Amino acid sequence: MNQRTTAEGILFTDQYQLTMAQLYFRLGMHEKQAQFDHFFRHYPDYGAHQAGFCVNAGLDWLLDWMESAHFGEKELELMRGMTSRTGRRLFADDFLSWLGANGDFCGISLQAIPEGRVVHARVPLTVVRGPFAMAQILETPLLNILNYQTLIATKAARLRESAGEALVLEFGARRAHDRGGNAGTRAALIGGADFSSNAGISHLLGYPPKGTHAHSMVQAFLAQGMTELDAFQAYADIYPDECLLLVDTIDTLSSGVPNAIRVFERLRKKGYAPVGVRLDSGDLAFLSTHVAQMLDAAGFPDASIVLSNELDELIIREIKSQIAQEAAHYGLDADSIIGRLVYGVGTRLITSAGDSSLGGVYKLVGLQGDPGWQPAIKVSEDPGKTAIPGSKRAWRIYDMRGRATADLLTLEEEDPEQLWQNARSQSGFNSDHDKSDHDKLALTLCDPRVRANRRTLPVESISHIEPLLLNVMTDGRVVCDRPTIEQSRTLRREDVARLDNGVRRLINPQLYHVSVSEQLWALQEKLLSSLSTQRTDPGS
After folding, report:
1. Contact criterion met (CB below 8 Å) for 314 and 155
2. Nearest CA-CA partner of 240 in 274, 209, 217
3. What stretch of H or E contains 512?
4. Residue 453: how many CA atoms within 13 Å on its side-chain side?
5. What is the pLDDT of residue 449?
6. Which 3 state secondary structure label does DSSP give 342?
């Protein structure tokens, strides 16, 4: 346990973060103020289908980690023992002494987009500002915590889109990557899952864990010469209020469901209402249709049918589509069947099957200089990988329908919200204005990757503009309210509802616009031009 605590503390970072921190210390740069942006470049691509948006998650756990992580004697002793390939000590005593006195995140300030909010590619989710060395050391844990939870929250949001109003249960702990299962459960709850089978973290987050029995319970009774009915009855006797029976150990339609109905009838006579049955194998759409028919005939129209076994958003959609097509052949109401389904999603949610990592990055965008802040940029042959430089603000622009139409990045001193409000207060959005006046009453949005791509939004086409980044930590002290999971879920529901249906589409989603202001574009071009000059004249 002590070893794990050390491994998950301040040394939960990559070795090159530590070696760079010592280099900054040796050059006197370690306490210069630096700014890093955390963002992702591409939405998850699952192969047969793609995401058109992500859901932000993980911030609260990052803040918890930052409040407790520091270089104590144990960590410093481990670093004293690190050597180079030739056996020389890697970290000098003066650097370690500095870490001992200053090696926490008390000087770090964060801005971030709140958990639960819809987020888009290239928009900073988190902005880190503080002493260069400690801001550098923060990179690895920040990316680890925020990238994974955002990835899983996004997958859960897609499952929610596919499931509609049906209950979605997260069943992934057994297939998760070690204790990442706890983070995954939390993210899934933010993203759209209603409950989880993961008992410990569910209790801590305030959600009752959900689950039933496994095939092994029925097998144990059979191995002792008893029957499936005996197993079901024993479970019902102990859990009469929570009786949900797994009915596919022997044969779903000829054994499992008839035996479950017998147990349900006995429960009903005692005044209890059964929860339902679970199907974990076979043609789930076909079986759901016939199980619903059998439960209805027995007088249990409210009993749920829980489906599990390698579900994802497309499979759920296909199950619902198949039921809609086939139910009428049996004289059944498809909506009634679909309305009683519950989806238990495990492996494909907790591992984000198809795209198992979010390409979130942490890029230096500014450094304290003489005079003032100096923007920094990283150049790539791929324009999509060139980080947008400088201290920025992020805004969301809504059209007159109240739908999100674009995210806009501006320089820190720009305020498009105030510009829009001032323009709206001016009278006469009419044809009497000449073109020059009209242009002054519009926002110009530039594609950060393609110079010629520009979009003009007349202010009368905008219903409102809001800032996305909020102050969450100042000098190592949390300065924001810590939202509950339910509050984050509410933000996600509201944000998703404000997206165009094309952006929400599960397959080939519509591209959401992320743009930069003209001033930010000009800054980026200036820096790129400067670096181009250095490439042609390396000695300059």
Report:
1. no
2. 274
3. none
4. 8
5. 80
6. strand
Q: How far is CA 347 from the centre of its chain?
A: 17
Q: Cα separation of 186 and 61, whole Å?
A: 10
Q: ∠ CA 217-218-223 to the nearest 5 degrees?
A: 100
Q: Of 268, 273, 345, which is closest to residue 303 (Cα–Cα)?
A: 273
Check: CB of residue 263 under 8 Å from CB of residue 245.
Answer: yes
pLDDT score of 433: 47
- 152 contacts 450 by C-beta, under 8 angstroms: no
CA 412 to chain centre: 26
Q: What is the pLDDT of residue 431?
A: 44
pLDDT in tens, 170-211: 999 999 999 999 999 999 999 999 999 999 999 999 999 999
Phi-psi category of 344—alpha, beta or left, where left has phi over 0 and alpha has psi -120 to 50? Answer: beta
Cα 150 to its chain centre, rounded Å, is 2
Q: Which residues of the chain have pLDDT under 50?
A: 427, 429-433, 435-436, 438, 540
SS3 call for 419 = helix
How many residues in total does the chain contain? 540
CA distances from 473 to 12, 66, 127, 128 (A): 20, 10, 10, 9
Three-state SS letters, 120-131: CCCCCCEEEEEE
Q: How far apart are CA 267 and CA 242, in angstroms?
A: 11
Distant-in-sequence, close-in-space partners of 85: CB < 8 Å, separation ≥ 6: none
Q: Got the DSSP string for 424-471?
A: HHSS--STTS-HHHHHHTEEEEE-SS-TT-EEEEEGGGEEEEEE--EE
Distance, in Å, from the CA atom of 170 to the CA atom of 5, rounded to the nearest integer, reads 27
* pLDDT the model gives residue 55: 98
Which structure tokens are listed for 55? 């859901």
Q: Rounded to whole angstroms, how far apart are CA atoms 200 and 516?
A: 44
Q: How far apart are the C-alpha atoms of 295 and 259, rounded to whole Å? A: 11
Structural tokens at position 260:
């479950």
State which amino acid sits at residue 433: H
CA atoms of 335 and 327, how far apart (whole Å): 9
Residue 408 CA to residue 393 CA, distance in Å, equals 8
Strands 118-119 and 54-55: antiparallel
Q: How far apart are CA 142 and CA 10, in angstroms?
A: 12
What does each C-alpha distance from 199 to 85, 94, 151, 205, 524 come to in angstroms? Answer: 46, 47, 22, 10, 49
pLDDT tens digit sequence for 464-485: 999 999 999 999 999 999 999 9
Token pair belonging to 145: 């915590």
Helix orientation angle between 485-497 and 180-191, rounded to the nearest 10 degrees: 50
Question: 371 preceded by cis ω (within 30°)?
Answer: yes
Kind plus residue range of the DSSP H or E element containing 238 = helix 228-238
Asked if 232 and 245 count as a contact pair (C-beta separation under 8 A), the reply is: yes
CA 503 to CA 111: how far, in whole Å?
26
The dihedral over CA atoms of 489, 491, 493, 494, expressed in degrees to the nearest 10, equals: 160
